[in-house]
Specification:
Elements lengths: L9 H12 L3 H14 L4 E7 L5 E6 L6 H6 L27 H7 L2 E7 L6 E7 L2 E8 L4 E7 L6 H6 L3 H18 L4 E6 L2 E6 L4 H9 L7 E7 L3 E8 L11 E5 L2 E3 L2 H11 L11 E7 L4 E2 L10 E2 L2 H21 L8
Bound molecules: adenosine-5'-diphosphate and magnesium ion (MG).
The site of magnesium ion (MG) has 5 residues, from helix 2.
């Protein structure tokens, strides 16, 4: 009898992995923006065309890459962010899997321009469906620009599954907002088809919230903070009167990573009980800071779900922080949000 098992070629393995990492233009945008933040950027520009179907480009002023690293960054499991399995329990960066660029380059035409701080020349790299088409030294600004063109050009079934432009655009804006909210000290812009959607200067969180969601939030935010030995909470919640009937804007970040968690959402909703109608949704942007050894962010490929080793304590602290903020809000004079 003959053996029938063989290893898949890299290009195919990457394409399969891409199925997990890149579902739509917004997933590529998320990965690129997170890489820019991980690279220490203070200014991040996003440019999309055709709701990301034609182009998703992120330009940063971060630390850039050497020519070898630029090439390496597209290999699967290639990362500068962790080295040992111990590091998995102390993750402070967004990335650590070393999968995003390899996956994106497997299903798109990618052009990277990058230059390290202080270097004379940078690198231009073009990759199409995992195949390197061009690699040469070029004069470019410091930092990194990655343009992802024609996503799923070589996977027609996936391309056909993309939704209408307004729907894909909504997803892009959602991802953009999440990253922009968690880094108010970083300046962000967002352009689609040469139209400016967001121009967010760096500043305080309250300033960023108003920049993203509009002036109606000015004066409607209550600061929320709690400091315990196990975790810290900070952020803003909306005054009860500003709660919306439609499910409004609600954000949890754990160590600056956006997460979805119904249990913790319930902690906030519970604290509002009796203050807002049962069918209204409070606004909140809450940051939980916790020792990375108490969480596991390795449970989901897109990492919007994480595990806490003691979820009940986190629930309790959030609920009491929100309750306290709401109580304080009743007795305190109107807060001054000098922007
Ligand atoms: P991960 O972020 O999990 O490490 P990625 O595939 O997203 O994996 O990126 C691979 C590597 O490429 C990163 O670890 C980083 O060293 C480098 N890299 C990616 N994007 C940038 C960027 N915008 N600026 C500087 N380095 C980057
Ligand atoms: Mg990454």
């Amino acid at each position: 009898m003959s053996d029938i098992i063989h290893l898949l070629p890299d290009a195919i393995a990457n394409q399969i992995a891409a199925g997990e990492v890149v579902q739509r233009p917004a997933s590529a945008l998320k990965e690129l923006m997170e890489n820019a933040i991980d690279a220490g950027a203070t200014v991040v520009k996003v440019v999309v065309k055709d709701a990301g179907k034609a182009l998703i480009q992120v330009i940063d002023n971060g630390k850039g890459m050497s020519m070898t690293d630029a090439r390496m960054s597209f290999e699967r499991h290639a990362t500068s962010k962790i080295r040992t399995s111990d590091d998995l329990f102390a993750i402070r960066t967004f990335g650590f899997r070393g999968e995003a660029l390899a996956s994106i380059a497997a299903v798109a035409q990618v052009e990277m321009k990058t230059k390290q701080q202080g270097a004379e020349l940078g690198t231009l790299l073009q990759i199409e469906g995992s195949e390197v088409k061009k690699q040469e030294p070029v004069a470019v600004p410091e930092g990194t620009s990655i343009a992802v063109k024609n996503l799923f050009f070589n996977v027609p079934a996936r391309r056909n599954f993309l939704k209408s432009n307004p729907v894909e655009m909504r997803h892009l804006v959602d991802e953009f907002q999440r990253v922009a909210l968690s880094y108010p000290e970083v300046a962000f812009t967002f352009h689609q088809n040469d139209m400016e959607f967001f121009n967010l200067s760096s500043g305080k969180l309250s300033h960023r919230i108003v920049g993203i969601f509009g002036k109606t939030y000015q004066g409607n935010l209550v600061s929320c903070a709690e400091d315990t030995p196990h975790l810290k909470i900070k952020g803003y919640i909306g005054k009860p009167a500003s709660a919306k009937k439609s499910r409004g804007e609600q954000f949890f970040f754990v160590n600056n990573r956006y997460i979805r968690n119904n249990y913790l959402h319930h902690a906030v909703a519970n604290a509002y009980e009796g203050l807002i109608p049962g069918d209204a949704h409070p606004f909140y942007v809450l940051f939980v800071e916790i020792d990375p050894s108490h969480i596991d962010i390795n449970v989901h490929p897109t990492k919007t779900e994480i595990k806490f080793d003691d979820e009940r304590t986190v629930y309790g602290v959030i609920r009491s922080a929100v309750k306290q903020a709401l109580g304080a809000h009743h007795v305190m004079p109107t807060l001054d949000f000098s922007l």
